[in-house]
Amino acid sequence: MLAQLARQEGRTQQELATALGLHRNSMVGLIDDLEVRGLVERRRHPDDRRAYAIHLTPSAREVLAAGDRLADEQEEALLAPFDADERAALIATLTRLVAAAGFRAGVHPGLGSGH
What CA–CA distance (Å, rounded) separates 113 from 115? Predict the structure, then answer.
């Protein structure tokens, strides 16, 4: 969810739920938890005073940066045996496999079921 928000801050809970394939009731609890952890904040939506816009906090940006660094390190370690052409071929093959399975880009497969 943090990565989705980093792509486009200020989305409503409903917009995030749709983007992640989650039920809106589940989204409320997730946002509540992230808010308690100090990772997101709700602000009145500028165009709809009944809705809240969800924004990242500085702490969330630190978490995302640390996660990116860790993911880069893990990817480098995993792909170390391959040269650049082999890496490109593997990534292209995996991208096609994910698309053929009907998963959405940027959304963990476990979230895509809409439950």
Answer: 6
C-beta separation of 31 from 40 below 8 A: yes
Range 99-104 average pLDDT: 85
Q: What was the pLDDT predicted at 108? A: 65
- Which residues share a beta bridge with 53? 12, 43
Global confidence as pTM: 0.73
Whether 115 has a pLDDT exceeding 50, the answer reads no
Nearest Cα to Cα of residue 15 among 63, 47, 60, 57:
47
Cβ–Cβ under 8 Å, residues 22 and 111: yes
Alpha-carbon gap, residue 33 to 51, rounded angstroms: 18
